[in-house]
Specification:
The chain is of the alpha/beta class and 483 residues long. It has helices at residues 3-25, 35-42, 54-63, 85-97, 106-121, 136-153, 159-162, 180-187, 208-220, 243-252, 309-315, 321-324, 357-392, 419-433, 460-480, and strands spanning 129-133, 169-174, 195-198, 224-231, 256-260, 285-288, 301-305, 396-400, 408-411, 439-443, 446-450. It has 15 helices and eleven strands.
Length: 483
Amino acid sequence: MTDDVRETLSSAVLRVTDALEIFLGGDRSDALLRRDEWLKRLDGPLPAGGIGDGVLGELEDVVIPNGTRLSEPGFWGWITAGPGTVSVAASLAATVASPQRYTITAFNHLEELSLDWLGELCGLSPVMKGVYSSGGSVANLVALGAARQWALEQHGVDASADGVRGMQTAVYCSREAHHTILRSAGVLGLGRRNVRVVDTDEHQRLDVAKLEAALLNDQSDGVIPICVVATAGTTNTGAIDPLSACGELAQRFGAWYHVDGAYGLPGILDSRVSSLYEGLELADSVIVDPHKWLGAPVGIAATFVRDRSILHRTFTQEPADYLEGSFGDPDDLRVSLDSMGVPYADFGVELSAPARGVVVWSILRELGRDGVTKRIEHDNNLARHVAKLAHENENLEVLAEPILSICCFRYVNNAVSDLDSLNAHVLRRLVQETPYLPSGTVVNGHFGLRPCFINFRSEVGHVEGMMKAVVRIGDDLASRKTP
């Protein structure tokens, strides 16, 4: 690379980062307010000729200023948030220096090292080995693919090679499990209708007695139990299923045991709730999304399994001349391109994939276990503060006591009969008129507000501002009888 090209890259990145600094620190009013303006600048036919580095000006002036609001300190609606500086820098480094995660390089090494660190951070046994993917959707797909392969191998069937052969199978999860479990069952040929969606208890946890009843019923009908799925931190309320009891039932009925910890697995670092993770050691597979609570850029999840060879049997692409023929003798490595390195392509659904491990490594190297623990505890404290303020106000009601960093609550007023409609209006006005951006959900049949605190930019003052705004808006709507 010539000096001129290096200078061009440096100046281009500097222009973009300057615009991003302004975006993060300046007036971040909603992009929709300027929609006509940026649509006018961006829409149009495919250009016959390019504008060269003029595109950098369009990024600076039009695209970046009209981006998403995920990085705002009051954004608590999704279980993703704007990433930190170090992880953004690491992602950029990988984009340029290792566009793919393969060959014998520092990036390929950090892919494996970071997986080991991540597993250790989240309390997994060292025997659990992983693979990165783009998010929890794919991570769950990889885990359930392994479950299908393993369960049918017990019946003499190689599912990945020969299909499920019309066998009756079932997957078991709670009503609060993430909907990607159903989608994974559909993609894997197990069928969404063969997912037994088990009711939850009063605390939104999988009801173990009902799980056992479903397994017994299917056993009597000759149905093969593929997998029991427990959730360590549900998307709706942050509930943690009874991990030990679920794992013991999975073992008893000969099913794979999967724990979906996409959001909540790092919660094990908070000593106040760590006991709720007992039974995690029974899991055959576990997932966690660093782009959730760890603050990595979106597009990074990890699937861990006890024996990574099951992933190879599940996802192998079969030999391809252009791959196998490109590498040399593994016992005579002289340059990085003599080997593909750890063959992650055979452990999941992606061949082409970015080097995600360096991003996770950068976060764990920056913060260490203690720093991550402080973040987890801080976010859980914010959820508990919401509950405290709600309990202290007669016009607020907690719908689910916080376990992790989610607290679902609602505005209440004796003069209003339709509280669900009222709270739906409160949410819309909150999002449209204030800097506080939670989402809404339904808990035990009641619609409420659902702030989820994984945003490292959020502080107690932001939480208190939201609660005051909810009461103010709720009082105003109730006085007008808007619902």
